[in-house]
Amino acid sequence: MAIATVNPTTGKIEMIIDPHSSAEVDARIGEAAAAARLLRTTTFAKRAEWMRVAADILDAQAPGLGELITVEMGKPIAQSIAEVEKSAKAMRFYADHSEGFLADIPLAEPATVNASRAWTRYEPLGVILAVMPWNYPLWQVIRFAAPALMAGNAGVLKHASNVPQAALFLDTLFERGGFPVGSFRTLLIGGADVAAVVADPRVQAVTLTGSEPAGRSVAALAGDHVKKAVLELGGSDPFIVLPTADVTAAATTAVRARIGNSGQSCIAGKRFIVHADVYDAFAAEFTRQMSQLIVGDPLLPQTQVGPLATESGRDDIVALVEDARDKGATILTGGTIPDGPGWFYAPTVIADLPDDARLVQEEAFGPVASLYRAVDVDEALRIANQTRFGLSSAVWTNDPDEEAYVIARLDAGAVFVNGMTVSYQELPFGGIKASGFGRELAADGQREFCNLKTVWKA
Question: Is 85 labeled as catalytic in the residue annotation?
């Protein structure tokens, strides 16, 4: 199996990299296991020192790394550089806060359990496997690796096969910062090889960000081997706009939410559910702005929407839009493939979707937005909750009672009020239903890969 960088802007192969052999994979897992034994005995202060140096490396190389990301998966260059900088910020966040997040927690009244003292402590598990996607090739990995390594774990990475250069950069990043050899190792393997890594007794847990089918497979494997798993899968996030909202601000934010990363984000607003009283105004402004976006070479600073990362990804988007069109939906703008090379697709807004259109239930992983008209807040919630996904959501309202009503009834891992979903290292992130289980980021995400040990003393 060849692992290649295929430039989505041109469709041309930039680089071909040989995969690791089974012997190389075994050796790399062995290096990680040895590093994990060292890391669990190092101090938080020492790990923090190493993590900050690694963060400095990211910042110093941000322009070049940004270009690498853009060439490999097509993200507009300003967003690629911002991803690098966000990753460095998260590394410093965990360098600063891990010792507090993982501090011992004493039982306030130990006499109630017949003890002089009782407490819980967080301890690292060991080697953690991360199976990561291409859409945020640095950020998705760092938001796992930074908390995991700061907790004293080691990591092995199976990255998406279309971003091998990002994967190889990450293979050495933490060692360059000072971490022990093997603390984080990239495995250049195919999807079919993941099962053997999950089964390896040196690997203690697995985290996956990716598609629902991949998540089901990895969760089943982890269950077979009685290993902890954290899954962040697909999303078809609702973006609800109610009558008291600032409609122009909502429409402008909705465009940003939908076309970030050229629409290839699990946590982006995808289904725009608008109260009938403001539907026409919102639809007009939203469609106007979507139709004026600059689509083109993602290395140019003025470009707002780049290509889809893969040809198959564009094929999936085309199939979803054509299915909706064939079933009577209205294409308000877009719905076309621009002329020229690369895997581009025009920013698209679709309204009047019939219930049997695939877009009603399936995730659109590209610059395609679905518009829904709701007669009242309860219908808006029904539409919002009708998919099998439950990652994040947004609601726009200036009515406090309405805000509380919607927050309590949305089936989602997060609700953003008068804004768009963004992942912050300070806030836990994850979903429910088919969007996965477990959490990343904040203290909760770091504790996912720790043993919570209870200690009782007479």
Answer: no
Strand partners, 368: 348
Cβ atoms 110, 48 nearer than 8 A: no
Confidence check: pLDDT of 279 > 80: yes
Domain with CATH 3.40.309.10 in the chain: 237-424
Q: What pLDDT is attached to residue 218?
A: 97
pLDDT tens-place string over residues 113-126:
999 999 999 999 99
CATH 3.40.605.10 intervals, the chain: 3-233+435-457
For the question of residue 232 being annotated catalytic, the response is yes
pLDDT by residue (tens digit) across 175-220? 999 999 999 999 999 999 999 999 999 999 999 999 999 999 999 9
The answer to whether 275 and 52 have CB atoms below 8 angstroms apart is no
Catalytic-labelled residue, pool 266, 362, 403, 448: 266
Contact 363, 384 (CB under 8 A): no
Contacts 24+ apart (CB under 8 A), 3-6: 3/161, 3/164, 3/188, 4/161, 4/162, 4/164, 5/71, 5/72, 5/162, 5/163, 5/164, 5/165, 6/162, 6/310
- In this structure, are residues 209 and 232 in contact, taking their beta carbons and an 8 Å threshold? yes
- Side by side, the strands of the sheet bearing 228-232 are 184-186, 154-158, 127-131, 203-209, 228-232, 436-437
126 to 59, 148, 155, 187, 270: CA distances (angstroms): 28, 9, 8, 17, 38
* Angstrom distance (rounded) from CA 434 to CA 390: 7
* Alpha-carbon span 6 to 14, nearest angstrom: 6
Among 72, 83, 232, 285, the one annotated catalytic: 232
pLDDT digits 0-9 by tens, 296-319 = 999 999 999 999 999 999 999 999
What gap in Å lies between CA 71 and CA 204, rounded to an integer?
A: 34
What CATH number does the domain located at 237-424 have? 3.40.309.10
pLDDT, tens digit, 9 for 90 and up, residues 65-117: 999 999 999 999 999 999 999 999 999 999 999 999 999 999 999 999 999 99
CA–CA separation, 294 and 447 (whole Å): 42
Write the CATH number of the domain with boundaries 3-233+435-457: 3.40.605.10
Q: What's the distance, Cα to Cα, between the start and end of the chain in Å?
A: 59
- How far is it, in rounded angstroms, from Cα 228 to Cα 214? 16
At 134, is the secondary structure helix, strand, or coil?
Answer: coil
d(CA 229, CA 129) in angstroms, rounded, equals 9
Q: Are the C-beta atoms of residues 370 and 245 closer than 8 Å to each other? A: no
